[in-house]
Specification:
This protein has a single domain, classed as Rossmann fold, CATH 3.40.50. The protein has a two-stranded antiparallel sheet. It is of the alpha+beta class and about 80 residues long. The longest helix has 13 residues. It is built from 2 helices and 2 strands; from the N terminus they run ααββ.
């Protein structure tokens, strides 16, 4: 559900991010530097997280234990 959609949003933002060598920056800057994204569509069978209704996402980095949110108008 929501985690899959948040991951999809990150990929959509990362695909057009200006610094392809530092995609983690999308999260450490909370999406402030994201200017363009691929379009994202979702069909939720049980909407629960609200991720389908907004331009935000949360991504976890298992190696460091970080869990960071981001937002971008293009999402």
């Amino acid at each position: 559900g929501g985690s899959v959609l948040d991951g999809t949003k990150f990929i959509a933002a990362a695909s057009k991010y200006y610094d392809q060598n530092n995609l983690w920056e999308i999260l450490t800057t909370h999406g402030e530097k994201v200017k363009d994204c691929l379009p994202v569509a979702s069909i939720m069978t049980i909407p629960a997280t609200g991720s389908e209704m907004n331009d935000t996402g949360v991504i976890s980095r298992v190696g460091t234990g970080d869990k960071l949110g981001f937002a971008a108008e293009c999402l």
